């Protein structure tokens, strides 16, 4: 028996920043504690033929492909679990977009 898990049976979910939940954000921060870089980015075409760049996080039954953006990078860098304690783990309204001025010189590509 192989020790490497077979991820082919996982549900694939593409997550845009607007749909990011506290649970997925926490998984991202745990998987990429120092942020992600080019080696972590997966590029693929969606059903509409658009090129998507995303980072991957896995749960027991789901592979999340989270679209990368300046907003995501900023939110990961400034993550504080306490910010989300009053929300359900699956509440996409919990993760708010950062103030555009807070993004400063960071370019957003969405």
Structural key phrases:
110 residues, 3 helices, globular, single chain, DNA primase, 4-stranded mixed sheet
Provide an overview of this structure.
This is DNA primase. Residues 80-91, 98-110 have a biased composition (Acidic residues). Residues 80-110 are annotated as: Disordered. The chain has 110 residues and is of the alpha+beta class. 20% of the residues lie in helices and 22% in strands. It has helices at 22-31, 70-77, 100-103; strands spanning 11-15, 41-45, 51-58, 62-67. The protein has a four-stranded mixed β-sheet. It starts with 10 loop residues before the first strand and ends in a 7-residue tail after the last helix. The mean pLDDT is 87.
State the distance separating the first and last CA atoms: 43 Å
Strand order of the largest sheet: 1-4-3-2
Total strands: 4
Radius of gyration: 15 Å
Shape: globular
- How much strand? 15-25%
Number of helices: 3
Biggest sheet: strands, sense, closure? 4 strands, mixed
